[in-house]
Amino acid sequence: MASYTLADIKNSILNASIPQAIKTALRDILDSTQTSGIQELTATGTVDAGTRGVELNHATTAIAATMAPPANGGFVVIKDTSASGTAAHTVTLSSGTFDGTNNKVTLNAPAECIVVYFDSAGAGTIVENVGSVALASV
In angstroms, rounded to a whole number, what is the distance separating the alpha carbons of residues 103 and 41? Predict the structure, then answer.
């Protein structure tokens, strides 16, 4: 019996001869199941789709991350998990906003953290800002 990943199934659906509305609905269902939990970044990079927790961990080098809001909405936590240092780690959204205006957050101290709820359109609402996480529009 063949083994298929969710990505294989999703690609098959998107390439199938079925109405676009059904393709979109199935894609969204599969995207909502692809939560990779927590992703730690120790260097600049892109946050994996479906990640609900982002840990930025480097004491001396600033990490510049990009991410998309969850495809079907939900909570996302971004935290500076560096043991020490004041490197200005950033996360910039590829679409949507964290608070209706700003699409970039900057964390520059260990244990700073922001919790955001995204609706299905990618519009975020800040639930908690621990420390002094800065927001900006870029």
Answer: 19
